[in-house]
Amino acid sequence: xxxxxxxxxxxxxxxxxxxxxxxxxxxxxxxxxxxxxxxxxxxxxxxxxxxxxxxxxxxxxxxxxxxxxxxxxxxxxxxxxxxxxxxxxxxxxxxxxxxxxxxxxxxxxxxxxxxxxxxxxxxxxxxxxxxxxxxxxxxxxxxxxxxxxxxxxxxxxxxxxxxxxxxxxxxxxxxxxxxxxxxxxxxxxxxxxxxxxxxxxxxxxxxxxxxxxxxxxxxxxxxxxxxxxxxxxxxxxxxxxxxxxxxxxxxxxxxxxxxxxxxxxxxxxxxxxxxxxxxxxxxxxxxxxxxxxxxxxxxxxxxxxxxxxxx
Length: 311
Ligand code: GLV
Prior knowledge:
This protein is an alpha/beta fold and 311 residues long. The protein has 2 domains: 2-91 and 279-296, Rossmann fold (3-Layer(aba) Sandwich), CATH 3.40.50.720; 92-271, Rossmann fold, CATH 3.40.50. 31% of the residues lie in helices and 18% in strands. The strands form 2 sheets. A 7-stranded parallel β-sheet has the order 8-7-6-9-10-11-12, sandwiched between helices. The chain has a 5-stranded parallel β-sheet with strand order 2-1-3-4-5, covered by helices on one side. Helix 1 (12-22) links the parallel strand 1 and strand 2. Helix 1 packs across helix 9 (281-296) and helix 3 packs across helix 5 (145-156). The longest helix has 19 residues, at 92-110. The two termini are 28 Å apart. Bound molecules: glyoxylic acid. Glyoxylic acid (GLV) is lined by residues 68-70, 89, 279.
């Protein structure tokens, strides 16, 4: 059994160790270090933003395991093999990490912690008006594994939660909006907008001037999906005009974010380097091992990407 790790990330050694516990006989190769080996014999691929055309060279490939929840980095490859299944990463620690990130930032904005930081710097003792969580309208774009877990935890804190997706979703306590008509209503009732959408042709640039204008004045935006969802100039203009009170950004159109980008020093932007939630080999290897076993038995791996939908 031969597996190839193709990723910009440098966590190949963790994956080698963890998968080795399930498959001691597995040959684990790392692209591009081991690219002189016989690529024909490779059965499986663990991939994150692989170089275009690499997967097409693996003629014996049986399935591709995405290292991330988002698969846009794979689907941009024009030579991506479409006759074999690609599995999205679904892992409890990835979900937990994202929920931590979302809760931390939602509470930051909800409790106006930025105001207190500024007040402390100015030596100013002043109580800022607190809003009841039941009156704080959270809007989650994308209600998949990540969105549902974050929604569940925020519901336990009694926030007012709505979601927006392509199709209606059924989650107790969460008002589901969908489609184009639902989007406008969803935006106009949202104080804290959280983007967890997959990046597809339908969602690229969705956080643009027209849609931002539909959010109530003083709304904030948390983007932990992909930088491509945001039209940066439109967001910067909305922050500068005070229509949007703050943006928390984990992902960017260009990563690493260029040093000259205005986000770095913008007083209303909080940013992290695409680290909201990381796939951790210790936790996720069991899922990958299960998928490999399924494919070995001639079954499909779990959570196969719908190439048409793009996620
Ligand atoms: C991270 O960005 C992921 O897609 O898991």
